[in-house]
Inverse folding.
């Protein structure tokens, strides 16, 4: 019996060595496979046309925070990690975002915050925030859409813009208004902040039929140089 048990232990040891050998070979092969595809997943302009299209350079330190405020402070700086956002900002993955076909490299988010719901007589002025990051969580895109929900009068629309200038976009000062100019741009060293007021189709600004689009637009490297 002892001889049988010893023989069994010997065969089991040989089998385990063989299994470990196969595992090491498989690991090496997997690493080789990963090495062959990793350039496609690198977060660089050369690796993905999405970044090239928006002039995003992951190695660049962007110069200033955005104008958009959250609780009295700039919401973010382009190039910061999404993990470093104010923890009160509720981020939701956006399966229908603009980069949905780049799921392994780019991630889209939307945020609905009470901070961006401004109560108005008879309704509210609501803002939806959109973010995009690379696979490491680096934020490279930011935009907002604002629209009136009820109470669409001249008084309410002027009050909405007054409150936006005061609390949400304080650096726009008197730029954001209903004058002849419906598009405003804040120019920074390496990005612009674009504000556009749109009249809804078939309606006039004076009727309250409008919405505001805000977007951070990164500047090409040539302009930075």
């Amino acid at each position: 019996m002892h001889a049988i048990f010893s023989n069994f232990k010997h065969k089991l040891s040989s089998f385990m060595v063989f299994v470990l050998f196969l595992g090491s070979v498989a690991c090496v092969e997997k690493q080789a496979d990963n090495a062959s595809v990793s350039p496609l997943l690198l977060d660089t302009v050369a690796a993905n046309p999405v970044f090239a299209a928006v002039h995003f350079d992951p190695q660049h330190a962007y110069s200033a925070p955005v104008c958009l405020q959250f609780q009295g402070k700039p919401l973010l700086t382009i190039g910061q990690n999404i993990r470093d956002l104010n923890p009160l900002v509720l981020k939701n993955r956006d399966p229908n975002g603009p980069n949905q076909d780049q799921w392994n490299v780019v991630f889209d988010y939307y945020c609905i915050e009470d901070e961006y719901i401004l109560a108005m007589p008879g309704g509210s002025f609501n803002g939806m925030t959109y973010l995009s990051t690379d696979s490491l969580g680096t934020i490279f895109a930011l935009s907002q859409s604002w629209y009136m929900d009820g109470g669409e009068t001249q008084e309410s629309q002027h009050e909405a813009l007054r409150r936006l200038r005061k609390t949400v976009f304080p650096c726009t000062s008197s730029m954001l208004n209903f004058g002849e100019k419906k598009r405003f741009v804040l120019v920074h060293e390496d990005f612009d902040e674009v504000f556009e007021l749109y009249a809804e189709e078939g309606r006039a600004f004076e009727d309250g039929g409008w919405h505001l689009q805000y977007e951070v637009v990164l500047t090409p490297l040539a302009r930075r140089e």
Notes: The radius of gyration is 26 Å.
